[in-house]
Amino acid sequence: QVQLVESGGGLVQAGGSLRLSCAASGILFNIAVMGWYRQAPGKQREMVATVTSGGSANYAESAQGRFAISRDNAKNTVILQMNSLKPEDTAVYYCNRIRGGGVVYSWGKGTLVTVSS
Fold first, then answer.
1. Phi, psi (5° rounding) for residue 80?
2. What's the pLDDT tens digit per position in 19-48?
3. From 69's CA, which of 18, 37, 41, 80 has a CA 20 to 30 Å away?
4. pLDDT class for 96, splitting at 50, 70, 90?
5. Whole-angstrom distance, CA of residue 107 vs CA of residue 44
6. In this structure, are strands 10-13 and 77-82 parallel, antiparallel, or unpaired?
């Protein structure tokens, strides 16, 4: 059974940092391209960052230079380090496996990030 469990969200002031974690089980994690997505209130879900099985990262323009995605294949975990947070980063953040240009699994519960001004 596939499980994607996001954690690490919270309330932070603008300019602060948060470290999100996604624990994956039930998937062939070592070969999976993984991604972080977010959905702000009233908006569509959007991709934030992706990481290949070899660790190559790609970022949305809004995340470039502020966020860093990484993975620990030994722990089946994907990390999103978020720095210099802005109020517009407020959203529920999700992780998922990416294949063929889309996500593979149903969305988990996500983790809420709230950035106050």
1. -125, 110
2. 999 999 998 898 899 999 999 999 999 999
3. 41
4. very high
5. 14
6. unpaired
Rounded CA-CA distance 30/75 in Å is 10
Specify the residue for token string 């499980």.
3
- Residue 30's SS3 state is helix
Residue 88: pLDDT over 90: yes
Measured distance CA(67)–CA(72) in Å, rounded: 17
- Round to whole Å and give the CA distance between 113 and 67: 14
Torsion of CA 54, 69, 9, 61, to 10 degrees: -140
3-class secondary structure, 13: strand
